[in-house]
């Protein structure tokens, strides 16, 4: 089963991807993880990506696709995979389809976790991250035992720059401009599954697995 997770930043697609990964025994792959692994292992592709990142530039589509295709050829992807954060644009989606077609494979499902912008701004504004271990909390949905303090390591919790309302609005605008067209792209291919991401996490998961089987 080859799955792509779609949805705005903060829609909860990463959470659903982790749960699906555990249920179906297929890897949850994010582009961030791929970049970090390749840079850490000093691969040729990793060195190229690092060059762009160090210069403060976006990694070009061709290189991102190469990194992703390289990853999904690994043994743990034999039964399938869940891509989270890729593709982000139509050209990336087309390049991924082309690479999979060359292996006589295709994307089975593009799961769109649909959440209105207003909900996302409120949701992300309540996020808190630990400066020590990186653990994340939410002031309403998943508060720490002691306000402002991490349960795991006792360091303080902060509102990350990425989660501030003004930053979230900018990220949502980028999403609507670049990534939202992917919903129509996969809908035309007949592989789109849209779920209401405002529902309880477990209800969203049940609705997805009802379709996946």
TrEMBL record:
Residues engaged in binding Zn(2+): 130, 133, 150, 153
Region of interest (NMP), residue spans: 30-59
Pathway in which the depicted protein is active: Purine metabolism; AMP biosynthesis via salvage pathway; AMP from ADP: step 1/1
Positions that bind AMP: 31, 36, 57-59, 85-88, 92, 160, 171
Listed GO CC annotations: cytoplasm
Protein name per the record: Adenylate kinase
Positions annotated to bind ATP: 10-15, 127, 136-137, 199
Region (LID): 126-163
Summary of the function given for this chain in its UniProt record: Catalyzes the reversible transfer of the terminal phosphate group between ATP and AMP. Plays an important role in cellular energy homeostasis and in adenine nucleotide metabolism.
An example molecular function term from Gene Ontology annotations: ATP binding
One GO-annotated biological process of the protein: AMP salvage
Comment on protein domains: Consists of three domains, a large central CORE domain and two small peripheral domains, NMPbind and LID, which undergo movements during catalysis. The LID domain closes over the site of phosphoryl transfer upon ATP binding. Assembling and dissambling the active center during each catalytic cycle provides an effective means to prevent ATP hydrolysis. Some bacteria have evolved a zinc-coordinating structure that stabilizes the LID domain.
Adenylate kinase active site lid domain span: 127-162
């Amino acid at each position: 089963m080859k799955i792509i997770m779609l949805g705005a930043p903060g829609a909860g697609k990463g959470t659903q991807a982790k749960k699906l990964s555990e249920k179906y025994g297929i890897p949850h792959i994010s582009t961030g993880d791929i970049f970090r692994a390749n840079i850490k292992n000093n691969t040729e592709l990793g060195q190229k990506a690092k060059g762009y990142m160090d210069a403060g530039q976006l990694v070009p589509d061709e290189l991102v696709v190469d990194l992703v295709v390289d990853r999904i050829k690994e043994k743990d992807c034999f039964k399938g995979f869940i891509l989270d954060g890729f593709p982000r644009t139509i050209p990336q989606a087309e390049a991924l389809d082309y690479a999979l077609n060359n292996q006589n494979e295709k994307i089975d499902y593009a799961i769109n976790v649909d959440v209105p912008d207003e909900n996302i701004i409120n949701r992300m504004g309540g996020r808190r991250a630990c400066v020590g271990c990186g653990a994340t909390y939410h002031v309403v949905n998943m508060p720490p035992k002691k306000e402002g303090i991490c349960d795991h390591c006792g360091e303080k919790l902060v509102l990350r720059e990425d989660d501030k309302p003004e930053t979230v609005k900018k990220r949502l605008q980028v999403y609507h401009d670049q990534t939202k067209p992917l919903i129509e792209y996969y809908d035309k291919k007949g592989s789109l599954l849209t779920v209401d991401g405002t529902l309880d996490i477990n209800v969203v998961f049940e609705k997805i697995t009802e379709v996946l089987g």
